[in-house]
Design goal:
With 425 residues, the chain is an alpha/beta fold. It has two domains: 228 residues, 3-Layer(aba) Sandwich (Rossmann fold); 179 residues, Rossmann fold (3-Layer(aba) Sandwich). The strands form two sheets. Strands 3-4-2-1-5-6-7-8 form an eight-stranded mixed sheet, sandwiched between helices.
Amino acid sequence: MSNCVWIISELYYPEDTSTGYVMTKIAEGLSEQYAVGVLCSQPTYAKRGMRAPKHEFHNNVEIFRCRGTTFNKDSLALRLVNLLTISLSIWFTALWRLRRNDCVIVVTNPPSLPFLIAFACWIKGAKCLLLVHDLYPEVLTAAEIVRREGIAMKVIGFCSRMLYRNVAAIIALGRDMEERIRRHAGQSNVPISIIPNWSDLSEIRPLPKELNRLLKDLQLQEKFVVQYCGNMGRTHGLETLFEAARRLRGVPEVHFLFVGSGAKKQWLEDAAKAECLPNVSILSRRPRNDLNDTLNACDVSVISFVKGMAGISVPSRMYNALAAGTPILAIADADSELALVVQEECVGWVVPPEDPDIVVKTVLQARDDRDSLKAMGIRARESAEKKYSFVAIIGSYQELISKLVFKGSNVSSTGSGTVEQQLEV
């Protein structure tokens, strides 16, 4: 019997944003070396309402979609119902499908899923690798979902520490996240590897403003555009950027463009309407085939977090901003991976959260120094090509699986055959 690699995530193809896109690419990249199966839910995010096949093959990966509720994720109560039903459904399927010494990569989305999958791996004798996209329970307090000193925080914290100490390996997205995880793991011998997300170098590339369709449609080609593009969730510091836009309403050549969706989208739209700001445009999430135009529709790309998010989450959109060759204004903690990359690569500015005065000053500085802006953009693209290509990142996953999990055991090196065939005794 050959070992198989399983990717377990709520979100997967046809979901093409955030975690869904990342996990899909990881699975397909690993399928070049291993037999890969996926346990996931029906679409619950951007493709919510679409019914995908319960079982299908897509790009050499065998997908098993589990049943569960798909209520509106922007409602916290309904999202909790989704979390529980999807996690339990995937857990039961994992108990049926996993085999001894299989490699399982489970992502921390939804947060209940890793606990159930780690338990399933223990029952079945599989190796569980935890891919940390968001660090729990800290992300819950940053999003103001649970109180920092409350009982829920203590219970979730205890359970999380037990999880971190009882998996085969942990994958962190950045140095700040690794440091926090090590504190949770304590004296355990669980190996922790840093494997960042990647830049989509073939899909995303620098594009001159005069050729940008989105800027042309919005009639912003002559403006200095400051853009926030991505998830507008509870941990993203949209308030700081919006306040900067409000203070710059009298500078007509500077325009703020917000593109995305999430829990704070409605607040943003209401605030912009109340202020009647002529220098703010708000768009819904754009289709993925428009991503290159969208990411290039700016002079400065903003990635903004609330205070205290260092080590809790690493924004994947940072790498595509690098691929687009756009300078980055990071509104983030100074010790975060985002801030470290921006400073080390000299591709932008780091501003502390909740300080719109510095944001205003930085935007005006960028507007007035186009030569530095151009040089930052060139360095950004070079950094993406040299350090954050998909080939390099998927190679890190392959190396980790080979060394820590299979260790020379009977593994399919071609990825040929289905998962069910690989499981035949």
